[in-house]
Amino acid sequence: MADNLMVDRWNVIDAAAMAVGVEGVLYRIVHDKPRPFDFDEALGRGLEFLREAGTGGAIICGTPPGSGFTGTLSPLCWSADAYIEIRSGRGPEDKSFYQDVLKALRSYEKLLNNLRSGQAYDKKETKSTHDFFHTLADLLVEQADSTTRKYSHEVCEPV
Amino acid sequence: MIPMVITHAQINRLYHQIETELSTFSGQLNKLEVAHYPDNERTQEIIQHLRGKVDIYQKQSCKIMAQWEDNPEEAINKLITYIHNPLVSEDLNFLEWLRSAQTENVPWSIIPLIKTLASHLIPDHKVLTRCAPDHNYQISWSRNPERAPNPFTILSLPRLHRTNVLWHTLLGHELFHPICVEFINKHNERVLASIGTQCAEQMPITEKEELFRKLQEQRVDEIARVTHLAWRRAMEELLSDMACVELFGPAAIMAMQAFCACSPLNIMPSPQNKFYPPARFRFEIVWQYSMKSEALSTIYSSCEKNGGIKEIVSCFKQEMADLEKLASESQGAVLVSKHPWAKIAYDEVSTLLKDASQFVRDKLYALPIRRWDDELVVKQIPLLLERLMAGIPPNEIVEQIDEDECKYITCPAEFAAILMAGWMYETYWQKTYITTGNKMPYLTMSRLLLKSCEDVSAIGQKEIKSVCSDKACNTESA
Prior knowledge:
heterodimer, A: 62% helix, B: 16 helices, 5 strands, globular, disordered C terminus
């Protein structure tokens, strides 16, 4: 009865694939490479992730959107981890930290939306968004890796 | 670990490795396809679904390899996260799920009944029942269309208790889990906002106490995430417990107690136990919100009329009195208010319990499933107990037998009645069992009950159609 294994919309395997996909799109834009085969799909999943993370951020900032949010805070926590990493490990010193994370998430969302709809975008903004997704991908790929295997050996010591 | 300089040979090696994984996976599916399953239709559907996924993975890997030169790191990361990780971490589970759903590995007699119950409780879920090596009941499904076990739902029973139908009362709990999502989603945002605010308010206090100082190093989002998880877990378990007790009454509580027998009753929700609520708290809540004492009294008086089963009723009454005492002590509620984060989560739980019990009733009372307090079920319990006392499977109620005229009119036993009679008999068995062979062994009792469910499931589908016309009796069984 410790039993309920509902896989959330965002689990670490899926979130890692999302981050890798968005990072791939942004890398190609920054380096003037051709579009990847999964351009639309990657941006779609990236936007979905940023919306869930952003709503979580709004809730923590005390401004719940009142839209019947059914998700969890996992995307926000992963995003905050990446944001702290980008800021060289500086965590939340005060309440404005979550306002900053939320602001950043909103700007990434705006950029992905612009890319998806073929509108003009800022190259500098693209670079900083790429940095975020690159860091997020590193963190999540590392976490996802541990789900693919168990310890290679277990030593049973006598009690 | 991705190498610093990525060569073509390295990418090729990874690509061929993944190709091999996909090919081996397909080979395993071929082997599983020819095995025997009690629910062959579902297993074939799963195998076809997995073949489709392998096809998608193969196409994706070709597309990734066609673009690798633009960004080798991207190609490697995509091969790993788009194909290798989901295949190894998730799809691979299906092979074990299918193996453990084969006829020899499951209580096949009860599988059609589980399917019928599931089709009424969670009609949108494609359930596969299997026996797992864990000492656990488990239901697993995915909200994410790309992740296992989506589009299927895996229901796991504990392998060592495969034939123990009395424990399988807990199926009522498991099959309600997916329904809980509706209630939780309805309250999710308000509760999350409230938890977020309360956690943020608690954070400054953390400087003063040793226990809290460590937590202060963590962040509001992390604390709120786990507190929210503790709330969600508690709601999911309590709603499902309530549903199981609404369906099967004292049989559900006895099954919960038997299942928890090897674990401490009062453990604080924590990451180690995945934030599950303490068993004692769960007993207290279901006793308070879902147990119907009037229905219990009716069963007592109905059974006490039959002198042959009086002793059984006496044993069962004693067990119920002990459980009521345990539930009335409220030790579980005291425990969850001891830790500040647990208190935040469980205060939110408490405000929703009344609505939760109403939600459970609204969902279950609309279904054509006879519950433990149904008039027909109550009428059947003493008659099934008589059969158990005589060592006969409690699968039917004999209405009339006339061998000269080849007349054999019976009424199929209701699942809730089998479970109630089974658990009542079990309390008597526990008190009186002696190894000299005077009483049937526990495994024999389990087999008798399992056999009964086989008959119920065969009749059950016809019966459910006529449930509203009150013509459940007089069905002829071979």
